[in-house]
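User: For my dataset I need records formatted as: sequence, then structure tokens, nothing else. Please produce one.
Assistant:
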Amino acid sequence: MVAPAVEAQLSVGRRLWIYQGERFPLIRTALLLAVFTAASINVSAQLAARPLPSFPSYLVAFLAVLTFFFQLRVCDEIKDADDDRRYRPERPIPRGLVSLRLIVGIGIAAVPFAAAATAMLDVRLLGPLALVWLWLALMTAEFFVPAWLKARPFVYLVSHMLIMPLIDLFVTACEWLAAGGGPPDGLWLFLTLSFVNGCVLEIGRKIYAPENERPGVETYSALLGPRRATLLWSAILVVAFGLLVMVAVAVRAPWLVSALGLCGLAAGLTCGWLFLRHPVPAAQRRIDAVAGLWVLACYGSAGFAPLLPFAR
């Protein structure tokens, strides 16, 4: 990390580049979101037995979702500003690399660009686009009951993870709404899977080894204890696998998608078991990594495996 005194002399562009590396790794995030958006559009088309849409549907969905996820980071920066200043002064904003005002400004400036790209595909898509932004705004305001939510961490989790099916509703609408129809049968299964996968990611990244717990950093391992938090995460992973199997049946590729999902489930449960045996930092990192890999494999298998000629 560059010393703060040196960072202060860097150009705005260079400081933003350091910021993205620490808080929003652009290349890695873009690759993951490209898989997520393309897979979601493919699933929507497969559920309706329609041909895959043209490239603009994929591009608009990707650009909008990249905007959403950056704005989610902005939302976190706003909500966590006081805690970061007190407990995580090494992060970019409290250490003075960039200002909160600059990051918020970039998030707001992205709105008209995402809206314009969306309207060019189909103006009706502005409805689900606005729904995501409305929920994001409510999340940023902590639904106007911040103390109540903070005292109820699982209500907090549900309220914030509900944005995931809303994002996926917009992404799939880039296929089904642009095709002139309504949501295909079985889409609710895929949207529910998006919600559960969001929980897999969120809980997985907040299971810490005891030696890594820090004052002011809220984790599920601190709330429940490492054992119960890991068992909860493992149970949610099993639920996600069950939903993936149902989606696999709906897209008429049950065996291949289920087999790929079973491999991901086995990897996740193995990492959970290893953490239960030895809750050390290396095991913590494995859970965090496998949570992301599970979600990537989940969308990849559901969205792309059915396109293979031997999948059905």
